[in-house]
Amino acid sequence: MIPDSKFSDVSVDFMRSPEQVMRLDRMGSSHQTRLSFMRSLIRRMSNEKWQFECLQRDIDSDGFGVSVYAVKTPKRTYSLVAFTQDIPPNKRTDRVIAEVWDATFSLYDGVPTQEDIDYLANNTPKQEGGRFRPSELVLGRANKSLRLFEHVISSLAQGDQPDIELLSSVGYLMRTTAIYGSGKFGCADREKIANREECRGAFQIELLAVYLIRWFTIDLVEYLAKKRGGDKATRLDPSI
Fold first, then answer.
1. Model pLDDT for residues 86-127, shown as the tens digit of each residue
2. Of the candidates 69, 94, 64, the residue with the CA atom closest to the CA atom of residue 80
3. Counting Cβ atoms within 10 Å, is residue 112 exposed (0-12), middle (13-18) or buried (19+)?
4. Which of 141, 82, 146, 85 lies closest to 112 in space, CA to CA?
5. Which residues contact 125 (CB under 8 A, 6 or more apart)?
C-alpha cells in the first residue's frame, strides 16, 4: 500500500508494508511502554500519591450487595459504586445479548450521597436500559470466573494461597465485558473532564474505573474468605 503523496508528508521509503507489521504473531508480541495508557495512569497515581479508600461495603455472606471505593487525587475524588448480584444459571452468558451480570459499576464524579447510591441501584444493574446523569463518568459490567472465584475464596479461607497453575490458566477473577465512557447512555460527555490534569491522557478515566474494579474484586474475595475462615483466613499474596 502506497499512500497518496498529496495527503502525506511521510517518505514512502520510511513506511513498512502492512504485510510486515499487521501480522498476528508480531502484534501479539508487543509490550507496554511508558506511553501505554495504564502505565501513564499508574505513574501519575504514584507520583501524586493518590489515596484509596473503601467507603462502603454493604454485602451479604455470599458477596451480594453494594460497595463504594473512592480514590482521592490532589484536586478531586472519584468513586466506584459497585453492585453485585446472584445470577441464575440459565441467565449467565458473556455474550452481548446478556441482560444480567455478576457485577455492574458506575464511576461517580465525587463522593456519592445515599440518594445517589439509591438512584444508581435502580439504574446501573440495568446497564444500557438505565438512565444516567453527568455525575456518572463511566458505566461498566463484569462476570466472575466460575472456576477461579470460588477456588480463591476457599483457599484463602483455609489460610492457603490459590493454585498458581489454575490462576495462570484462567487469568482473571472477574472479567469486564463492557466499559463505557464519554457520554455513553447519558453519562458525562468528554468535555466535562477533558481539561482535568488526571483525565487529559487517552482513556484515563475509563482505565481508572478498570483499576478500581480490579481492587474491588481482590478486596471482595479477601473479605469473603475472612467471613468464611475467620482468623484462619489469609490475604492474597501481593506477588500473585
1. 998 888 887 777 899 999 999 999 999 999 999 999 999 999
2. 69
3. buried
4. 82
5. 83, 85, 100, 101, 104
Which residue's entry shows cell 445515599?
Answer: 114
pTM, whole model, 2 decimals? 0.86
Residue type, 68: V
The DSSP 8-state label assigned to residue 17 in this structure reads P
Cell digits for 166?
489454575
Closest CA to 236 of 167, 173, 161: 161
Question: What would the pLDDT profile of 35-59 be if each residue is shown by its tens digit?
Answer: 789 999 999 999 999 999 999 999 9
Q: Exposed, middle or buried, 226 (CB in 10 Å: 0-12/13-18/19+)?
A: middle
- Grid cell locating 161: 494461597
Q: Which residues pair with 107 in a beta bridge?
A: 80, 138
